[in-house]
Specification:
Two copies of one chain form a homodimer. Chain A is mainly alpha-helical. Helices cover 58% and strands 11% of the residues of chain A. Chain A is elongated. The structure holds a DNA duplex.
Chain lengths: 127, 127
DNA sequence: CTAACATATGAATAGTTGTTCAAATGTTCA
DNA sequence: TGAACATTTGAACAACTATTCATATGTTAG
């Protein structure tokens, strides 16, 4: 992030290369800023390897923190921190059974997003 | 990231809560680590609002840096830096026409990923 | 109650990231 | 050639992030 508070004149291409027709057309087609921020937030959450591993695991099965930690070779604490982020983003839900808390995906859209990313990567890194 | 080099004993749930059947099953279903890292990298790139705006714009039309800067109210320099990241991830391609460089999406998988994210957000933040 | 365990939380911290500014390329045209 | 412009690049820095450690919370069994 790091937005500096300088007030220098922004050299934003004032002159010739502007294609106002394109700008106009694109501007109307853009996703609303607020929605786009939500989408970016979703991708950001899924953009961390540890969290994506967790998502990957939860696509396959409901799991407790302890199992996730063992599976991903992470500290339960680290897993818990990441689960908190996934919880705050409504990507996962949980249920308690005694001392153990089981996490699972909150909806199937998440796995759709995951698989779409997978498709991209598979087609990209392949002969 | 920030991986500390401590060598404390990792308290990784050694005792009772382990579900070895689940662990075994999930372990075999997991996406290969290297592929998963690529997917995470893709989401990470698309997880920044500025870059996602650029992607959003390029879904609608090929555009030059100057137009992107004007559309998104960013410095050409900032746009260029972000385009470099999108270029390095093979998300965009470009062509030169005189002084102007036009960017466009490298393939349609990118927009599929974008739309899948959009679907998730629309269903999530809606009655 | 207390001990044992699963999970959560807070603070600290090293690594990372996005923007800015200034300066460098590369291209066209007079 | 040299001025003008579009774009790129590098350094610097403030803001942010993920992990770690230590500690707290919540639950069960004895």
């Amino acid at each position: 992030m790091a937005k500096r508070i300088s007030v220098s004149e922004t050299p934003t291409c004032e002159v010739s290369c502007r294609h106002d027709d394109v700008l106009e057309r694109v501007r109307h087609g853009l996703t609303e800023p607020e929605v786009l921020r939500w989408v970016a937030a979703l991708f950001k959450v899924m953009g961390d390897p540890s969290r994506l591993q967790i998502v990957n695991a939860l696509i396959l099965s409901e799991m407790c923190v302890c199992d996730l930690a063992a599976l991903l070779k992470m500290t339960p604490s680290a897993v818990s921190h990441q689960l908190q982020i996934l919880r705050q983003s409504d990507l996962v839900k949980w249920r308690r059974e005694g001392k153990v808390i089981y996490y699972s995906l909150d909806d199937e859209h998440v796995s759709n997003v995951f698989y779409q990313g997978l498709v991209h990567v598979n087609e990209k890194h392949h002969p």
